[in-house]
Amino acid sequence: MAKNQPKLTDMTELLLQQVIQLEHTIKQSKKTHLDTIKELSNIKVTVNVAELRQIEKEQRQRLQNDFDQFHREITKNNEELLKVHKAVSSKRLFYLIVLNIFLLLTTGFSMYLAVKNTIEKSEYERLEKEKGQLINQLENVNQFFNKNPRTAKSFKEWSQKQ
């Protein structure tokens, strides 16, 4: 598309301005006609109806030409927009869909890993707690053997026999 291409809103605004201008012209013409009628009622003047009809035809033709030009420009813009729309092919759309599916799967996998790591973390914490309890029990047994060396000696002999 050309960079200086008028937009639909601009062309619509121009058409509305032309319609407003036409209404203004019609009001002025109506006022002029009413003034002329008042003058004619006082003065006997013959009006050339053919000339008035010619002016009316010219005004209608000018308005029709403006509308036709506006219609051509809108049609041209619509054709260019259709070309742009067709440029976005189904292949590109397919790539976008595949990319979205990939991102969705990646998100799902990440959530799975996060949940799995949470479960493994809680299991790890449980094992740490058990380890702490076993260390406490081992320390209690070591303290017992340190306080009772005879029992420790007999335990060593007994454990070596087994």
From TrEMBL:
It comes from the Bacteria. The chain crosses the membrane at residues 93-115. Keywords: Coiled coil, Membrane, Transmembrane, Transmembrane helix. Residues 53-80, 117-144 form a coiled coil. This is Uncharacterized protein.
